Structure formats: C-alpha cells, structure tokens
Request: fold
Amino acid sequence: MQTLRYLGPSVLDMGGLALQTSGGPALNPRFFSGFLTTPRAAAAGLLAVAEVARTRYFQPVAPASLDPVVTGSSDRLRFESFSGCCGVYARLDVLPPGLDGEILDHGTTNVDVNPPLREALARVAGLDPLHLAVGPDDLTVSTMDGAVVEKKVPLPARWLRGFAEVHVLAAGFEPLAELSAADATAFLRRLPGGNDRSVLWAVPSGRTLRLTSRPAPGAVCLAGAGRLAALRGALRFATGLRVYGPRVGAGSAPVASTWQLDARELRLSVTLSPEPYRGFSGEGAVLAALASDDVADDAALVGALLSWDPTIDVDALAADAGIDAGRVRAALTHLGTAGRVGYDVADGAYFHRSLPYDAGRAERDNPRLTGARALIEAGAVSADGDGAATIRSGPEIYRVRRRPDGGYTCTCAWWAKHHGQRGPCKHALAVSMTAPR
Reply:
C-alpha cells in the first residue's frame, strides 16, 4: 500500500486523456512506508500520545493542540507529545518487530492529529491492517476505512524547551519498579482520577506498588496520579509496566518519573513533572550544562557527528570528537535546547531527532543564563573564598555559597522560593561560570 500526492488532477477533455503522475520518490519522500504488525496496540498507543497532546492537566481547558512529533530512525518510529500544560511528556516507540515495511530515510516531522484520524484509529479492530507513510511534510494513516493525511504544522516553542529539560532529567533516572501486566492494570485502575493535584510516593511492596504520602528510599514520585490516565487505553496490550526515576530518600523533594508500558513490539511511556502545576519547560535542568564557554562549539562538533543509530554512543562520540564524555553530554544538552536529542530510559541512551538547530536558542530560552552572563560582563561577581561569592546587581547585594554536594545557595528571592529545585538562580549560575576549573 502506497499513498502518493499527485502534481495535479488528471484531465479528460476534447484534446484527449492527460494522466498526471506523482513526480516519483523525489517529490514524495518518505522516512517509512509499511504496515504495523500489531495494529490494535499501535492504534491505542497513537491515541494515547494524541490524548496527552490535547489535554491540559493543570487548570483544564477545552482540548487544543494535537501535534505529535514523529521521528523515523534507522530501525524504529517514535511519536512524542507534550500536554497543553507541558507537565506530561508521552512517547510511543514502535520497535523493529512492530514494523513490516521499509525504512527509506530518517528524519522528523510535526503533524496535527485531527478528529478524522482519531476516529479512524479508534475503529481499528480484529485483524484490520494499519499502514503508515511518514515523510517530512505529512503523516498518512491508512485503515480499512481509507486513508487520512495529516499535514506538517509548526512546532510549539514551549515543546522545544520541554524536550531539552525532559532528556536531561531522564538521563538521571534508574529503573525502580517492575510490575506484571495484571498487577499494573490493578494498580493503575485504583489510582485517583480526574484533576488530582496531590504528590504521592509509590513504594515497591511485593508484586505491586503501595502509595504513601511521604518519600522513602526506593520510592517513586507520583505527582498528579490522574496524569497517568493516558496509559489505561493500552493496558490490554501490555506485558508489563516499568517505572523509572531518580533515587530518593526520606525528606526528598518531589521529582519527575517515567511510567512505561511494554508491549514487546511497542513501548508507551508517560513522564510526569515533579508537581502537577510545574511544566517541564521551566525546570532549569539544562542550565548547569550550558554554562561552559566551550559548550556551543562542542555542540556544533557533536551535532555534525550524530548519526541515526537507534541510540547514541557517548563514548564513541567522545572518541570521534576528541573531547571527554562529560563535554559530550553537555553538548548533547545544548543540542537538546533545539530538540535535536532525546533520552530513552529503557535503552539507557540518548537518541537523535532532526529538528532545525539554532545555536542562539539556548540563550533565548533560558533568561537566567542570559542574566548570569550579563552579571559577569558587568563585573558584578566577587569571590569571597571558600566557595562563597558576593553579587552586586543594581542596588541589591546577594550572597552565594557553595554546598558540599556541589550546588549553591543564594539569598535572592528565586532561591528562597524554589530552594534549588528548579535549577540555579542567575546569581549562582554566574558564580559557577566564574569559578576556577
């Protein structure tokens, strides 16, 4: 099955029959064209990703944008979206066993998902085939009811900031729990629904997870349990549920977490921000990596070396670029500010997207970074010794101190409000950028 766009209509008139052609592959480029081997599961996964894109979990409003990002890699397809509040990130990975077709090229596009496509996916049943044709300008989904074509649309700027933050946070995640399909179904179905804004903690207990109101070693943060609702439609196809997050202890602040359904040929994951009201676009996780003077140049070099392998080998990139692995990771963070890099917790590795790279985006999207550079250029940073510094910003004077864990405290209002949980303030960032290497 192929879907082609013709250059114009065929015409039958007094002069005869003029048949129009499609113009061939050059005018109809495709990343992938073929069938999905588990059509019902794939349709449920695509609907879940679209459902997240159309939902605003914090202060709900009428459904709005439905614009999943589709990436064709060397052996798989990835569909990604953010919620309207940017606090939930969803991804469907269609793995090699889930594809029955030809991967013709690689690339990324951002398409709208309108009601006709959602209705077509919802009607996939039994042995109905599901065919996809993914190109740089559109996504064509063909079912027994016919073909639906969704065109490329602009990518929301807030999504780019979200992509950058999510991949940095996810790179610090570890597998914390694993449930069978039956236990996962029971656990997810008893969670609070609706616009739940509580921050709970899920502690492994036997074959399932036990919910508590306080963190404990080995617990997983579950902020706004209702935000996992998108997973429920795919539960009947899952073989299990894996949960990822950072290691926490008693007294830990809320953190992000990833909840991933495994269906052999597919993986459907939902990543939740640390608190229901917090969008990923403002987490500030990228700031420390962007503070280096060399990071922009490193990003340009690493970006030129990226390939379309399913995962990015950091050590191999470091060897090819002639820089150490730490600088490669910082460069990947910089590339992530333009959405060029993501992180797969199941593979424990970065992956590549093809979005236009803008070297100036890191500065524009991170005003704290711009503010820190302005403080340095104004000579406002004075080192006091022992990791402490004084910052003079207009009539105000701030004190920054280095903590034993390498972070910083500051006397400014930003730090007093967030206590370093949403990245460093501009004063601490300026001190870290001027500290001896």
Residues 39-53 form the longest helix (15 residues).
